[in-house]
Amino acid sequence: LMGSRACVKMAAAAWASAFLHALLHTANTFSIPLCQGNTVEQFFCEVPPLLKLSCSDSYLREAGLIVVSTCVAFGCFIFIVLSYVQIFTAVLRIPSEQGQHKAFSTCIPHLAVFSLFVSTIIFAYLKPPSCSSPALDLVLPMLYAVVP
């Protein structure tokens, strides 16, 4: 069992890192000069469509955001994988098969939603520009933002 102090520390770290990451994206977004209007053909405002509207060379900004986002995402992914390893080892130590089944039936839906979330984000952001279409650019954000 996890102590309340560890739980508070992990929650605070998650909130602080998410806030700093969002602050970085927000500051970058508001500093982009737009010269092709301000209409984004999306359900919500994301960085790649905004970069298409930008009239400045945004390669360094985009590269910096990709590096920081990749580091944050990789850290979260590793933390979640290690958490699931610990959860599964604890569940396998449960003596009764019914208890194991009950524990796994709680974990597996979360793991399925997490897998759907990660796989759609990977496909959305790492797909080659050649297979990009306006319809696909509308559907993928809905998949990783609404469905999970």
TrEMBL record:
Name of the gene this protein is made from: OR
Database matches in SUPFAM superfamilies: Family A G protein-coupled receptor-like
Organism: Apteryx australis (Southern brown kiwi)
The name this protein goes by in its record: Olfactory receptor
Protein keywords: Cell membrane, G-protein coupled receptor, Membrane, Olfaction, Receptor, Sensory transduction, Signal, Transducer, Transmembrane, Transmembrane helix
Top-level lineage group: Eukaryota
The UniProt record lists the keyword Zinc: no
Topological category with respect to the lipid bilayer: Multi-pass membrane protein
InterPro entries the UniProt entry points to: Olfact_rcpt, Olfactory_GPCR
Subcellular location: Cell membrane
GO terms for MF: G protein-coupled receptor activity; olfactory receptor activity
An annotated GO cellular component: plasma membrane
Membrane-crossing segments per the record: 66-91, 103-126
Signal peptide: 1-29
Keyword Ligase: no
